[in-house]
Amino acid sequence: MEFNDVYDQERVTRKFTNRKVNEKLLAKIIKKAQQSPSLLNSQPWKAYVLTGEPLKCLKKDVKKQIDDGAEPHEDFARMQSLQWDAYPSQSMAVVGASQPYFFHNKMDLFKNSNDTMFNAQDVVFLTIPKASPAWSVFDLGIFSQSIMLLAVDEGLAVMPAHSMVSFPELVRKYAEIPNSEIVGMAIGLGYKDKTAEVNDPKFIPDRLPFEKIYKLVK
Ligand SMILES: Cc1cc2nc3c(=O)[nH]c(=O)nc-3n(C[C@H](O)[C@H](O)[C@H](O)COP(=O)(O)O)c2cc1C
Hints:
Strand content: 5-15%
Distance between the termini: 37 Å
Order of helices and strands: HHEHHHHHEHEHEH
Number of domains: 1
Helix content: 40-55%
CATH architecture: 3-Layer(aba) Sandwich
Shape: globular
Bound molecules: flavin mononucleotide
CATH superfamily: NADH Oxidase
CATH class: Alpha Beta
Strand order of the largest sheet: 1-2-4-3
Number of helices: 10
Largest sheet: 4 strands, antiparallel
């Protein structure tokens, strides 16, 4: 695919079909993403692909936590105890992910898709070592973007979501991730359910006006 087409198509998918992704294709994408740059070529990332029965069990256990009212506790949030600046907070309030759902009075679509892990049949969980500088988080972000762009180029739909790592101890259990690693992010990979209301283009969020994020000083 033309690079610009891949780039333009990289929008998130909140409901996948039941079709699984070929295991060799998943490995091919992640192998290629290893070319991503990283600080001093440290390559701090690891990728754990969960599919089939273990993924089903994880979804079931996570759903039970949510239904029981358990507090989400992602490793990153806990580590950095984020105190968001007003700038991204305002962006989230104005053009954030859930805003279009909110304005169409369809927040349940957003919530249900998250609570069921978007019906993803293949999820890649991404980790870095617990003893990591902030640079490794940056590196993991680049690695994630590489995976997503390569996946879109292969005709797949993508769904990066922190909600899938809200209960990291469960992810660790089913993906066999050692305690020495932070469960940073998760990306669902698969095929878009084009009939699902949650995927309707009217829910694609806008970006901030360019002038708000760009300054040329000369
Ligand atoms: C680090 C990260 C975490 C995200 N977590 C979630 C999430 O938990 N749930 C969700 O529905 N979307 C999540 N998203 C998707 C964003 O909401 C989405 O990329 C953004 O709203 C822009 O939409 P677009 O990518 O379709 O243009 C996440 C994206 C990133 C990069």
